[in-house]
Specification:
globular, 313 residues, 14 helices, mainly alpha, 77% helix
Length: 313
């Protein structure tokens, strides 16, 4: 019996020492954040570095390693007319869609915040575009905007805004195609911005709003001097996420127009896909996809600094 107890003492000391070592803050802290670093490193860092490597080579799907060519791919894509048009389309697409999303989300969030009756049902309907698979929802719009059987054309004919048997060809004309793509993207992004702004409106201090009301401030003065300054940090976050989503999204463009007609709806993300994956030119596709990284990085830093400054103020 004594020999058994004596044999377990070293093991107990080792276990106790291990517990003390594991319980140290210098060990627990890094151990807790290590999975997050591994997640970011493997799923974000490695693909990003691999894209940089591909952009500096002449890699293709047949030769995924390629040879080092320096900045030649970047020089070639800048001289490409389609790339310049896609770059212009990307900024038009993003800025127009984000302005529309923020304005409509502000109106919708205020309407939902002001009423309680049926709010849950309306919020459920508003969230449907966000929770539905993007490809499935966009295919629905593909039918709505069909060249011959568009329900929008049928409604315009019924109210006399379109001659009988005439069609608008929403996705076949360059101007209407870009407008259609923006409308569908706004429809898809509106729920996210609405929920974010609704949460922001619900968190505003009630005493400040009541005090402004007692002081005789009208709707626009309360909006400009009380609500918008308090909502600015949340608004900046909504704009930041919406901008990044819009810059990097290609699902709506791919399903509706494939970048056409005549490259009028081509954006950088779809062009990178067509060049790199469909066309097999991995190096050019990687160069196009990396082109907007500096712009997005600077935009994110500026918006986060603006949000932090608004919180401090």
């Amino acid at each position: 019996m004594k020999s058994t107890v004596a044999a377990t003492r070293p093991l107990a000391r080792v276990v106790a020492h291990g517990r003390r070592w594991v319980g140290r803050e210098a060990v627990v802290g890094p151990a807790l954040v290590l999975p997050a670093f591994l997640y970011v490193g493997l799923l974000v860092g490695f693909p990003f570095l691999y894209a940089i490597y591909l952009s500096l080579t002449d890699a293709t799907t047949g030769n995924p390693y390629g040879a080092f060519v320096g900045l030649q791919n970047y020089v070639e894509i800048v001289q490409d007319r389609v790339f310049r048009q896609a770059l212009r389309n990307t900024f038009v697409f993003t800025i127009t869609a984000q302005v529309a999303v923020i304005v409509l989300a502000n109106v919708l969030a205020r309407a939902l915040h002001a009423t309680q009756r049926g709010r849950g049902v309306v919020l459920f309907l508003v969230l449907l575009p966000w929770v539905a698979p993007v490809s499935l929802a966009t295919i629905g719009w593909l039918w709505i905007l069909h060249a011959r059987f568009s329900i929008v054309d049928w409604m315009l004919r019924q109210v006399g805004l379109l001659p009988p048997h005439a069609n608008m060809f929403w996705l076949g004309r360059p101007d209407l195609a870009m407008a259609s793509v923006i409308v569908v993207h706004v429809w898809r992004m509106l729920p996210f911005a609405t929920v974010v702004l609704l949460a922001g409106l619900s968190s505003l201090p009630r005493d400040l709003l009541d005090q402004a009301l007692v002081d005789g401030a009208g709707f626009w003065r309360r909006l400009a001097h009380v609500q918008l300054p308090l909502l600015l940090p949340i608004l900046v976050v909504a704009v930041l996420f919406g901008t990044i989503f819009t810059f990097t999204d290609m699902a709506v463009v791919y399903v509706l127009t494939r970048g056409g007609p005549f490259e009028s709806t081509q954006v950088l993300s779809s062009l990178a896909f067509f060049k790199g994956i469909v066309g097999g030119n991995l190096s050019v596709g990687a160069s196009i996809s990396l082109f907007l990284f500096p712009v997005l990085f600077v935009t994110a830093v500026l918006m986060l600094r603006l949000a932090r400054r608004a919180e401090v103020a």
